[in-house]
Design a protein that fits this description.
The protein has about 450 residues and is an all-alpha fold. Among the domains are: about 90 residues; about 170 residues, no CATH class. Helix content is about 75%, strand content about 0%. Strands 1-2 form a two-stranded antiparallel sheet. The model has no long low-confidence stretch (mean pLDDT about 80).
């Protein structure tokens, strides 16, 4: 079958979305709606439509074409001519830096890839980011009286309370209708998901709640649909203890309370998605970042948040790549994390005497290489790293260690992004080459 029908179907859907945006903009002008109300109406309409995708379209490629066109349209709506006075005003009249439109499309694509036909794992995360998030935003803007600080402003306690209540109801309804989980577990799991999602939403920034909320909910649900009340309670105690510990350590580490919570959430999500030994290197990325920032502060406004965003994108990208190709990308993800940690440690070593800096860099690079090889060997054969990968791994770690040593000024700003790309792109290129030309597994 040609691509004509899927493309035509996707274009029709895009036209309908633009029609909704035009209608919202017209009503907003006539009725004096605030920019936040306009944005949330479009957000809800888009989210509800996204929830129907697996059942609305018979072919997966129609969904992929639709998502690609959506990203292109979102980019066009950011152009000045459309952003101010055009259709883009419904999304971008709120004056804050946000990538939420792109991140929601990315989240929908990853959920579509990973849900494996389990309806609750697709519908519930999108219902939360669509309905609970919109309810919280509107409640906070209309009735917010008590506020707490985040890096780019503030959020209201009232909005977070509304988010929790709506989220809890959504979780319980979806679990009762779409699963065979016992009712006690439904209540307990609903409370856990609602509390976790509320924390994620409250601590997200620049629109990253549109990515972290649905995917965080997905991984938490996927890991705990079969858990009993006792297991869930134990996780709650562990998570609460980690939050308290990071809160107490935050001043020593130079972390704000917000950044400390975000780091705990990141670690918790990684542990929900993979075995503990595979979480060692991602956690070391966060530790190396803190070390580098304390020794050589960067010029970014929120470096402690940026490193979490980079780590999250690496994680989600690896999972999506494995699902697309059918060849596990875990060893390449952990390799990218090892290289990123090596680069950050190299930044931390800058400024020390030459011999001391060189010794630190060599010791860290060798230790990270050994850790990567060890964690890979602990995985079962179907996800174990290819036997010829170690020379590439050694070269990548060496390159990421040398780059900050040779060009320290290049990593004074946008450090997380630069080192993240330098670590991820070579690993992704080799993964794609091996996936296309031969088996990755030994």
């Amino acid at each position: 079958m040609t691509l004509a029908l899927p493309i035509a179907t996707a274009l029709t859907a895009i036209a309908a979305l633009l029609g909704v945006m035009a209608g919202v903009r017209r009503l907003a002008r006539s009725r004096g709606w605030a920019p936040e109300v306009q944005r949330k109406i479009v957000h809800v309409a888009t989210g509800l439509f996204a929830m129907s995708l697996p059942w609305l379209f018979a072919e997966d490629r129609t969904v992929w074409i639709l998502l690609a066109l959506t990203v292109a349209v979102m980019a066009l709506l950011r152009l000045p001519a459309l952003r101010h006075g055009g259709l883009g005003e419904t999304l971008h009249a709120v004056e804050r830096r946000s990538y939420g439109d792109f991140l929601l499309a990315l989240a929908v694509g990853i959920l579509f890839l990973l849900h494996d036909g389990i309806a609750v794992l697709y519908l519930l995360p999108l219902a939360i980011v669509t309905l609970a998030d919109a309810a919280a935003a509107l409640a906070g803007s209309l009735y917010g009286r008590r506020f707490f600080a985040v890096e780019e402003g503030r959020k209201s306690v009232e909005g977070s309370v509304v988010f929790f209540l709506v989220c809890w109801l959504l979780v319980m309804v979806c679990l009762l209708l779409l699963t065979e989980i016992g009712r006690v577990n439904v209540v307990v799991l609903g409370l856990m998901v609602a509390a976790f999602a509320t924390l994620v939403e409250a601590d997200s920034w620049r629109g990253f709640d549109n990515l972290f909320l649905p995917l965080g909910t997905f991984f938490f649900l996927a890991a705990n649909l079969g858990s009993g009340p006792a297991d869930l309670a134990a996780q709650a105690v562990l998570f609460g203890g980690a939050l308290l510990a990071f809160r107490l350590l935050a001043p020593t580490l130079g972390l704000s309370a917000h950044a400390a919570r975000v780091h705990v959430i990141a670690v918790f999500l990684i542990l929900s998605a993979t075995a503990a030994h595979n979480a060692v290197l991602p956690v070391l990325v966060l530790a190396a970042h803190v070390w580098a920032r304390l020794r050589n502060p960067s010029s970014e406004r929120f470096p402690d948040l940026d490193i979490v965003a980079v780590l999250a994108l690496l994680s989600f990208g690896a999972m999506a790549a494995g699902d697309i190709t059918g060849r596990n990308a875990l060893s390449f993800f952990t390799l990218a994390c090892a290289a990123l940690a090596a680069g950050l440690a190299s930044v931390a070593a800058a400024g020390r005497p030459g011999a001391a800096a060189a010794a630190i860099r060599v010791a860290v690079a060798l230790s990270l290489f050994a850790l990567w090889a060890w964690t890979a060997r602990l995985n079962p054969p179907e996800v174990r790293w290819h036997g010829t990968l170690w020379p590439f791994a050694a070269a990548l770690l060496a390159a990421l260690t040398l780059a900050p040593a040779l060009r320290p000024a290049a990593f004074a700003g946008e450090r997380s992004l630069k080192l993240g790309l330098a670590a991820a792109l070579p690993a992704a290129a080799l993964y794609a080459l091996l996936a296309a030309t031969g088996p990755i597994l030994p």
